[in-house]
Each structure stands twice: as C-alpha cells, then as structure tokens.
Amino acid sequence: MAINDLGFFKGFTRMCEDGWLQGWHERNGGNLTYRLTDDEVASARPFFGEPRPWVKMGVTGENLGGSFFLTTGSGKFFRNVCPDPEHSIGIVEINEAGDSYRIMWGLEGDARPTSEFESHYMNHCVAAARTNGADRVIYHAHTPGVIEMSFIVPLTDRDFTRRLWQMMTECVVVFPAGVGVVPWMVPGGPAIANASSELMKTYDTIVWAHHGLFAAGPDFDTTFGLAHTVEKAAQLYVAARAANGGSEDWLNKIEDAGLVQTCHDFNIQINEAFVD
Ligand code: 13P
Ligand code: ZN
Prior knowledge:
With 276 residues, the chain is α+β, with helices and mostly antiparallel strands. It has ten helices and nine strands. It has helices spanning 7-22, 38-44, 85-88, 117-130, 144-152, 157-167, 171-174, 190-200, 220-243, 256-265; strands at residues 31-35, 55-56, 68-72, 89-94, 100-106, 137-141, 180-182, 205-208, 212-217. It has a nine-stranded mixed beta sheet with strand order 2-5-4-3-1-6-9-8-7, sandwiched between helices. Strand 7, helix 8 and strand 8 (205-208) form a beta-alpha-beta unit. Helix 4 (117-130) packs parallel to helix 8. Bound molecules: 1,3-dihydroxyacetonephosphate and zinc ion. Zinc ion (ZN) is lined by residues 29-30, 140, 142, 187, 211-212.
C-alpha cells in the first residue's frame, strides 16, 4: 500500500490531470484543495513524516481548526502532479485555532502550499458551514471562456449569472444559485480570500475577473463538473456573441419563464433575484 493507492489521493490527482487536459492550467496556473475525512486522515497517517514548523496564515477560520487538507503546491504545475506527487502536492494540518498550517506529507524540496491557500481555507470554512460539512473540495482554474467573458460583460453577479444560465438548458440546474463575481484583484493572500469567501456564503461558483474560476463542492466529480459546466457556458457565450456580430440581440434564446419552469420541474430552488 502506498499513499497513491488511497481513494482520495487518486481522486485528487485525477482531477489535476483532468484540469490539465482541459487546458486550464498553463505553467503553475490554478490550485486544488481537499478536506480529508477522519477515516482518510487515519489511512494517510502511516505516510506522514516529521511535521514541519507551523506557518501562520493571514486569515482565521475557527470552524475547520484541526482539519487536514491535501493541497497543490505554490509554483507547481498541474501537469506534474501525477508523475511527481511528492514534489507537487502535500497534506497539511490546520491548528485548532484555525490560523496556521504545518506540512505533514509531500511538498518535498521546501515547497509550500498554493499561494491561494488562504483563499481556499477561508472558502472551505464558509462552504462547509453553508452545506453542514458536505463541501470538501475547492478548485481554482484559469478557464479561458470565463476570463474572456470578464472583458465584455459587466462585472456583477446578475450580469454573469443570467448570461451563463441562458447559454445551455441545464446550467440553471447545475448552479441554481448563480455565480458571484470578484472584480480584478491581486492574486494570493487575504484580500482576495476575504472577497471570495463573502460571496461563497451565497454561491458555490465565483468568477475572478481576468483570472479564472473558483468553485466548491462535496467531491471531485461534482466540483470538476461544476467548473466544466460554467466554463462551457462561458465559451458558448463568447462564441455565440462573436457569431452574432458582437451583438447580444439573439434571434432565439431561453426565456426567464423557461429557467423558472426548469427549476420547478427539477425541484430546485432558483435564485429569484436573477430572473425577471
Ligand atoms: P500557485 O502556483 O501559488 O498555486 O498560484 C497559481 C495561481 O493560479 C494563483 O492564482
Ligand atoms: Zn490563479
């Protein structure tokens, strides 16, 4: 038995590979974190080394104090996660106060968790609280369609959500709360962490303008599927608008009544603030 044989480890590394194959992770772009269950921590413990020193974060999240996360490393390439996990990713423990981490496995060669770890941690805290502990995955990807959209659509939750919902019938089923939008900000650190986690109280998907996507979910399949759906809708929007001569005056479209009817029939609560 090696750490690579553990189910959560396989799911994590597979998702890194999936994102790489989508073209969302140029160079070191993007990052992924997963909050282990107690059983998963027990199964991983035999592989832990001597704990490395505690590192203080710029944020505090008390509700997930004592948790363990598998995280991509800062400056590490998603492309290298499967062939070289020991140097590319690592398991960290959060202290009980929820303001520091220490490396327990991996991130060999003086590597550190992603520079967005503070954003991931704060968003884990909010997403876990919103879903009664169900959400365990936070994913950040440099998705081209979403980035393109942020140049041509007003940077509001409503403007992005409506356009994405209208692009493909099942979008409203996959993200019925809609998406939040963070304006352009310097990446890494507490400022973007706080702005994102404020939106995470309402949404499981957040657009980082001119940067990419930030998504939360209970497992790897759901979270990757969410990012994939939002990104596909964004690409459809950009392509349809270009094909329409740059205009949003569509010949045909999904009406608001159709969005509402879909959610009604699927027994899903639509965010009513975003339909007319
Ligand atoms: P890291 O290499 O530190 O994860 O940063 C990549 C990134 O996408 C920052 O937003
Ligand atoms: Zn990024």
